[in-house]
């Protein structure tokens, strides 16, 4: 057997170490997508140190955590399959298609941009795919929406409603009871309704896991079924909701008008804020 230097042995061990190989593939995908660990952490809803820890021992992760890590980077199919193979797993089936690759996506973006009110395109799991300038201005990080990984409205609307520690500043205009009734309860009911027919969506699975980790929120989620029986499984509520507009510093009301098209992976919502000039 040929003699190997210490450096050579290290290289040989690295080639045999599935954790090192998977970490290398993940880092290549981050570089290709110009994705930082901070951005990946925000996308998954975990701390940036947790991302580093998961990448370091990726081959040993529970399947759900590995799937979250891979889904957050959205690698090509062959790289995705290789990562799971190196971990000794079978890659779970892909859920849906990347909405950014839809042939009519340019038309959808142009339509959203033509709306002067805050408007957003999002997936079944409420992940923001595209939003217009007004939406970015309304929900920009700042004093009223401090940065909190995994709970920012420009990334995922429902995660902001349910998990941001200061969500009630805007949603409910600072009134906790108004936030619970008009925003949190509706969001939980929507999660429960979507889970009935889209339980395989990775973003939805992550949201449900985070709900289950919070006893009070989990109890409220269990009550969502009662809410659905009383109010119906609808994605549109015409009831105005208390809202604080950070752009004007005024307490007002918001109507969230949603559009969902059959067989489409995307939904569309426009925020109608009382006091805004008629724009459309």
Number of discrete domains: 2
Distance between the termini: 77 Å
Reading side by side through the largest sheet, how are the strands ordered? 2-1-5-4-3
Structural class, by secondary structure, is: alpha+beta
Helix content: 40-55%
The count of strands amounts to: 5
Second-tier CATH architecture of the largest domain: 2-Layer Sandwich
Low-confidence stretches: 6-10
Main CATH class of the largest domain: Alpha Beta
Helix/strand order, N-terminal first? HHHHHHHEEHHHHHHEEE
Major sheet details = 5 strands, antiparallel
Structure write-up:
This protein has 280 residues and is α+β, with helices and mostly antiparallel strands. The chain folds into 2 domains: 6-86, 434 Repressor (Amino-terminal Domain) (Orthogonal Bundle); 99-273, Beta-Lactamase, CATH 3.30.450.180. It contains 13 helices and 5 strands. The chain has helices at residues 6-16, 18-32, 37-44, 48-56, 63-73, 77-86, 105-114, 133-138, 157-163, 176-195, 202-212, 215-222, 224-231, and strands at residues 119-123, 128-131, 241-245, 250-260, 266-273. The chain has a 5-stranded antiparallel beta sheet with strand order 2-1-5-4-3, with helices on both faces. A hairpin with a 4-residue loop joins strand 3 (241-245) and strand 4 (250-260). Helix 2 packs antiparallel against helix 6 (77-86), helix 3 packs across helix 4 and helix 10 (176-195) crosses helix 13.
């Amino acid at each position: 057997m040929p003699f190997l230097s210490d450096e050579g042995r290290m290289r040989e061990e690295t080639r045999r170490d599935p954790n090192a190989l998977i970490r290398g593939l993940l880092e290549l995908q981050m570089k290709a997508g110009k994705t930082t660990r901070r951005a990946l952490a925000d996308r998954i809803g975990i701390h940036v140190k947790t991302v580093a820890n998961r990448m370091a021992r990726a081959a040993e992760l529970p399947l759900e955590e590995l799937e979250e890590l891979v889904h957050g980077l959205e690698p090509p199919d062959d790289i995705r399959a290789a990562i799971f193979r190196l971990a000794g797993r079978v890659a779970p089936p892909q859920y849906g298609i990347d909405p950014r690759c839809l042939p009519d996506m340019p038309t959808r973006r142009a339509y959203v941009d033509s709306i002067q009110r805050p408007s957003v395109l999002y997936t079944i799991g409420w992940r923001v795919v595209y939003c217009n300038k007004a939406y970015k201005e309304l929900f920009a990080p700042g004093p009223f929406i401090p940065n909190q990984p995994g709970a920012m409205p420009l990334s995922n609307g429902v995660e902001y409603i349910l998990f941001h520690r200061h969500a009630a500043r805007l949603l409910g205009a600072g009134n906790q009871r108004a936030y619970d009734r008009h925003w949190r309860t509706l969001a939980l009911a929507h999660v429960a309704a979507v889970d009935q027919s889209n339980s395989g969506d990775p973003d939805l699975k992550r949201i449900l896991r985070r709900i289950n980790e919070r006893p009070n929120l989990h109890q409220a989620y269990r009550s969502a079924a009662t809410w659905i029986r009383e109010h119906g499984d609808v994605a549109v509520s015409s009831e105005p909701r208390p809202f604080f507009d950070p752009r004007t510093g005024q307490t007002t009301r918001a109507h969230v008008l949603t559009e969902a098209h059959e067989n489409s992976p995307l939904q569309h919502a426009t925020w109608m804020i009382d006091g805004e000039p008629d724009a459309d």
